[in-house]
Amino acid sequence: MGTASFLKSAQALLRIRNQLVRECLAELLAVFVLILITLSGSAQMVTSSSTKGNVLTAYLAGALAVMVAIHTAGGVSGAHLNPAFSLAMCLLEQFPWWKFPIFVAVQTLGAFVSAGAVYALYYDAIWHYSNGTLAASGPRETASIFATYPADYLSLSNGFLDQVMGTALLIVGILAILDTRNKAVPKGLEPVAVALLVFSIEVSMGSNCGCPMNPARDFGPRLFTFVAGWGVEVFRWVERRGRGRGWQG
């Protein structure tokens, strides 16, 4: 009886009543889950030289990660997961502008922390594969585990168009799925529909830049690689940088 009373008291003490804090924590956890699975899929592929994964398994991991992340935070924060989606909601007047910078900061923080978790998880594999050098280009680069980089042939203008078009298609697709005036997705299967949307975009538009479609997903882990020792090169656009895997994300 005493133990039950103590647990109830502890639960009441730890319960978060502020709605904004609840939404931020939900968004943080959901983005952490999203990036943890997504980057782990890339890490497994890269560090095993594609013997324990390939581009399709990496894309599938990323798509399923979206589904899990939506289930994680959908009921609390709406599972934005993506600054681009938060911005679209603001433009459609379905999300207050004052929350936008807060959500962007939380989403980016979640991605940064998750990148650190993936680095810890694959620490031995990364250092073994890279022969002890953290590089953002060359045959043994490992930066593409965490962020997306352009293929050798891609120009800056074509890369910009690639990202705008892919992200726009993602937002339009999500809005269509959530629009009750359309042919409705069976209730509870919206996360599955969004995951399939993400997978379809990745397998059809991923070769140029890796199809991140999410500024927080790309910038947070990219910032982590800069801090962790990959150097300032992770922020540079260099055509024909000697990379053979521009599609990886």
UniProtKB/TrEMBL annotation:
Name the reaction it catalyses.
Answer: H2O(in) = H2O(out); urea(in) = urea(out); glycerol(in) = glycerol(out)
**Pfam families tied to this protein:** MIP (PF00230)
Among Gene3D superfamilies, the record links this protein to:
Glycerol uptake facilitator protein
Q: How does it sit in the membrane?
A: Multi-pass membrane protein
Q: Which domain of life is it from?
A: Eukaryota
Recorded name of the encoding gene: Aqp10
Role this protein plays: Aquaglyceroporins form homotetrameric transmembrane channels, with each monomer independently mediating glycerol and water transport across the plasma membrane along their osmotic gradient. Could also be permeable to urea. Also participates in cell permeability to H2O2 and H2O2-mediated signaling. In skin, transports glycerol to the epidermis and stratum corneum, where it maintains hydration, elasticity, and supports lipid biosynthesis for barrier repair. In kidney, contributes to the reabsorption of water, helping the body maintain proper fluid balance.
- Keyword terms, alphabetized: Cell membrane, Glycoprotein, Membrane, Repeat, Transmembrane, Transmembrane helix, Transport
Give the family per the record: Belongs to the MIP/aquaporin (TC 1.A.8) family.
SUPFAM superfamilies under this entry?
Aquaporin-like
Protein name (Swiss-Prot/TrEMBL): Aquaporin-3
Q: Name one GO molecular function term.
A: glycerol channel activity
Question: Is the keyword Glycoprotein assigned to this protein?
Answer: yes
Q: How does it assemble?
A: Homotetramer; each monomer provides an independent glycerol/water pore. Could also exist in other oligomeric states.
Q: What lineage does UniProt assign to this protein's organism?
A: Eukaryota, Metazoa, Chordata, Craniata, Vertebrata
Q: Which residues form the signal peptide?
A: none
